Structure formats: C-alpha cells, structure tokens
C-alpha cells in the first residue's frame, strides 16, 4: 500500500519526496534533535545526510518494502517539511515500528501529538493492525509525553545506543482495542 496523505487540524502529512531534502537538512541538523536518536544517525550530521537518507528511504519504498514515511507540513504554510514520521507496520518491533522528529521551532505546540493521532488512525483503521511497538531514549521526556497522550502503554526497558550516550530506552505498545476505545 502506498503512503497516503493524511490531514489534521493544523498539518498535512504527505509522503516523503526528494524535494524535501533541503528542508530536512536544514531542520534536522540539530544536536537537540539528534541526541535522542539511535546512534545509527550520523553525528556530526553530514552535508549530504538528508539526501542520502531520503534516497535510501525512497529506494526501500520503491522496492516494495512495507514502509510509510510522511513529512509534516503546516497547513497554510510554505509547504516546507518541519518534521517526519516513519512507520514500518510489519517490522519485528524490537526497536519500534514508528519513529519521528520535529524541527525545534515547532516543539511544545502539540503538533507531533496531532500527527501521531493521524498515523495511529491509519495503522488501526486503514491497515487493521492489532498493535505495534514504539521506543524512545529514556531521557527523552517529550517523546514519552507524546506516547502517553497517544495511547501507548509502557512495557519495559531495552538497550539501544543513542547519541547522547545513553543506552537505556523505553519500549511501549500501542494496541488497537485501547486506541479505538479511547478515540470514541
């Protein structure tokens, strides 16, 4: 299934495109974002980091890998990517099925909670999933709050290296039954 465009009150979540590279490079190359991400993300972030990443993701999608990747765009804005969400619905979930980031100027506005709500609806209503897993660095309080506000249930800790030096990560499960119950 192709990645559909999703909309919320303030956002358009549209499929990732090569044209998003400049905005991603500009917004993502930020230690305050990357410090909470898995160590597989290079730091210092290279000048071609966004292009390499976007091309790799688009190659996976065109090869038929089950991957949905959205960029977040403000409604009524310039159409620039201010963040993204990737979702691998059928991955084993050991390191989580979903990840996200948001450009720092847009933090603390509830935008990521709004976007995750749309992605959860897609996962449970459109795809019909029973559950999926999500993870975050144990020190990432903002990511934890998004999970708590979007129906995730804490299940325990896992080891996953992050740039900030921590290896302790929280693992959460998001269940269809609880999501649909809480949405009504």
Q: Would you summarize the structure shown here?
A:
This protein has 184 residues and is α+β, with helices and mostly antiparallel strands. It has helices at 21-28, 31-34, 49-62, 111-126, 141-149, 176-183; strands at 6-7, 11-15, 68-74, 81-87, 98-102, 131-137, 152-159, 168-175.
Can you walk me through this structure?
The chain is α+β, with helices and mostly antiparallel strands. The protein has a domain of 124 residues: Aminopeptidase, CATH 3.40.630. The chain is built from 6 helices and 8 strands; from the N terminus they run ββαααβββαβαββα. The strands form 2 sheets. The chain has a 5-stranded antiparallel sheet with strand order 1-2-3-4-5, with helices on both faces. The protein has a 3-stranded antiparallel sheet with strand order 6-8-7. A hairpin with a 3-residue loop joins strand 1 and strand 2. Helix 1 packs across helix 3. The longest helix has 16 residues. The chain is globular and about 45 Å long.
């Amino acid at each position: 299934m192709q990645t559909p465009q999703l909309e919320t009150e303030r956002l358009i979540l549209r499929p990732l495109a090569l044209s998003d590279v400049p905005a991603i490079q500009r917004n993502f190359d930020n230690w305050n974002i990357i410090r909470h991400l898995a160590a597989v993300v290079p730091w210092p972030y290279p000048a071609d980091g966004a292009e390499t990443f976007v091309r790799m993701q688009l190659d996976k999608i065109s090869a038929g890998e089950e991957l949905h990747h959205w960029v977040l765009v403000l409604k009524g804005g310039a159409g620039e990517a201010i963040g993204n969400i990737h979702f691998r619905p059928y991955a084993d979930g050991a390191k989580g099925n979903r990840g996200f980031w948001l450009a720092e100027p847009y933090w603390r506005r509830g935008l990521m909670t709004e976007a995750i709500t749309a992605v959860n609806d897609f996962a449970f209503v459109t795809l019909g999933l029973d559950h999926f897993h999500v993870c975050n660095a144990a020190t990432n309080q903002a990511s934890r709050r998004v999970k708590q506000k979007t129906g995730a249930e804490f299940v325990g800790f896992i080891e996953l290296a992050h740039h900030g030096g921590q290896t302790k990560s929280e693992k959460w499960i998001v269940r269809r039954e609880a999501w649909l119950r809480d949405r009504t």
